[in-house]
Amino acid sequence: MASLASAAEEFQFNTDILDLKDQQNLDLGLFSKANFILPGQYNLVVHVNRDSLPETSVDYIAPEDDPKGSVACISPALVAELGLKKQRMNQLAWWHQGNCLDISSIPGMTVRGDLGASALYLNIPQDALEYTASNWDPPSRWDEGISGFLFDYNFNAQTMDYAGPQASDQQLTGNGTAGFNLGAWRLRADWQGQVHKTSGKPSQRQFAWSRYYASRAIPALRAHLSLGENYLDSNLFGSVRYTGASLATSDNMLPPNLRGYAPEVSGVARTNARVLVTQQGRILYDTQVPAGPFRIQDLSDAVSGKLDVRVEEQDGSVQEFQLDTASIPYLSRPGTVRYKVSAGRPSDWEHEPDGPEFASGEFSWGVSNGWSLYGGALGAQDYRSLAVGVGRDLMAFGALAVDVTQSNARLAQIGQRQGKSYRASYSKRFEDYDSQVTFAGYRFSEEDFMTMNDFIEARRSGRLNNQSKEMYTATLSKNFRDQNLSLYFNYNHQTYWNNAPSDRYSLSLSRYFNLGGLKNLGLSLTAYRSQSHGAVDEGAYLSLSLPWGDSGSVSYNSTLNRGSSGHSLSYYDRPDERNSYMLSAGTASDGNTASGYLNHEGSLADVTASASYQAGRYRSAGLAVQGGATLTAEGAALHRITTLGGTRLLLDTNGVAGVPVQGNGASTYSNRFGKAVVADMNSYYRNQASINLDQLADDLEAGRSVTQATLTEGAIGYRRFGIVSGSKGMVRILLPDASPPPFGSGVYNARGQETGIIGEDGLVYLSGMQVGDLMSVQWDGKAQCDFALTEQVNADDPQAQFVCRPLATREIQSPSNP
């Protein structure tokens, strides 16, 4: 048992060196052993090497061979979260009737407790642990979170008034997710609605619960299970809305450097605009952007297939185009298999069946170091599809994959259709040249080739629409650091067998430079061209900006579109981390213009307001509000959010309001109940949340200011901070006979937090003092007496004193009349 007691060394103190009046009234027992902790139960944050686990209850037990000592009992439940390798788990030994780990069974492991930091430090040799990264934990440390309700929303309102006989137009749209977490299960319902009013016409109202589903992670399989209404997430067979079940290995469960590609949408807004990204009518992203170039990069990497992008300008014009969310080559690490299995029946927005039952499966197998074999099959009544491909990691030359898909469809109105589709894809990061081809691909489909979605639409309408022929897609980025120049290029080209081709490309250049006495000037140019169904939209945007003040900038902007042009002068400022705004005025070919844009990242919601005006043509305004509500047994809070229904972390500040907390790049404050939610946490990724000590009020004290959490997808995590709230000051504590407690005694509040140590003559500097609190004084290993704070203590009054009564009497005395 000696190997269990890491705090073994005892110290003898020479008390003669202490300049004390009462040399006999000392209690230094707590300091006689290194890191000695009294036997009992403590809530501690467990640190494994450099990583942190959630706060847990840890028992300190006196070993049989050392009744005056104590050792931390590492329970089987805690061991399961340490991330030990399987072979190590099988070699563990236990003591205390199998309830505590014998740390000698893990050579090199040490244990140290620190009550001052409310922490238990476990040092474990790395070769005994599963693979970890600086921002990723093994499945044994994944946290399913707590049960609770959530309601996330995104509302977007716009009003436009046109000059002359044209009509005014008002529109309110909304979408969101309601859900309930129960253990590992995530129950979700997506909704979206619209109210549209045009002068002279009746209002149009729409509302629908667009999707019901349940899902959960299965860590043992590195997979995600989904039941209910879903979209077929396939790199081979496209996207189909269906009702059924799916089981798929999740890239999100892999370390971040092995995860997949998330699509991004780029474009140029001519005015303040609303950008709406949908897929088969389902809203994926809805936001407002200021005039100028925009790039949306926070779409989920689970999105696949074609995306419909709609840019609604405040001058009433609309841009529409499609993007294909092509993925990087489907490669797997050597010896691993990634798979997706789905079964169900296509369904429509009314939750009714819309096609025959089907089953699909696909896989990627890492055959060897560099080679991957992938493929799959999809089968339904009157439709079959089979795909096979091979991928090769070309090391310094990137990664390449080629595949072929064969389809066979039989339609009553059209007849038998059988064809092939060929695809090649490539990606490469050129580190030496500081450039990256995010994705480049080519696909050719024969005239009779049909995807599952083509088959369902033809079955419904009785004719073939938009039969794909050729597709090119590429995204390229390049930095020229010597010239402070960055380049970004995106290109999509699609031809059809029975429709006009569509093209979309955009090119962005930006450069920072100095000119004379002016420093850090920025010059950017964005050009784009979009052609779809015979309609062409093209334009360019030029901006020259220079810093102005501490956080602002002034810019000259020029726009050129088909048939119109404009010039404006803008001022942008971000006065603090929560607010930013832009004011602009200028002239256009058809009238003078003015606009404003304001964004506020509030604790309760993210609010964006905008307004535009053009003389003689129109005036318009927009307002977007996005946020959420989370309700659990541990507390509730309103908060802002970006990913609807996504992962979040509920922070408990021990009932103290107004505590500044931050995490994942966002900051907020605890509400009146001492709760705050940090949203948009990364799933299966080690997230960190902390208290902003620079903004912490003077009467607050944080024993621990940083916490970590690795949460499964959609989880509501929960972490508690030990905040001590109240005044601070020097007081005197005496016993009923007017003698002081022993020197070195500890003073604790009702929550078990140590708030001071008794000095000479009973003087102690206490923190967290609040009227009505009951404080206890401990020596000889236990609480001996207590006293109540019945009046506010003035930190500048050295005469404040309290009588500490034995626990048996518990008499409360006033500090002014002890």
TrEMBL record:
Any Pfam family matching the protein: Usher
Q: Which InterPro entries match?
A: Fimb_usher (IPR000015), Fimbrial_membr_usher_CS (IPR018030), FimD_plug_dom (IPR042186), PapC-like_C (IPR025949), PapC-like_C_sf (IPR043142), PapC_N (IPR025885), PapC_N_sf (IPR037224)
- Is the Nucleotide-binding keyword given for this protein? no
UniProt KW keywords:
Cell outer membrane, Fimbrium biogenesis, Membrane, Signal, Transmembrane, Transmembrane beta strand, Transport
Which SUPFAM superfamilies does this chain map to?
A: FimD N-terminal domain-like
Residues annotated as domain PapC-like C-terminal? 731-790
* Leader sequence segment: none
Taking every annotated instance into account, which residue ranges of this chain make up the domain PapC N-terminal?
12-157
Q: Where in the cell is it found?
A: Cell outer membrane
Give membrane topology per the record. Answer: Multi-pass membrane protein
The principal localisation class reads membrane
Tell me yes or no: is Isomerase among this UniProt entry's keywords: no
Tell me which family the UniProt entry assigns to this protein: Belongs to the fimbrial export usher family.
- State what protein this is by name: Outer membrane usher protein
Which species does the entry assign this protein to?
Answer: Pseudomonas idahonensis
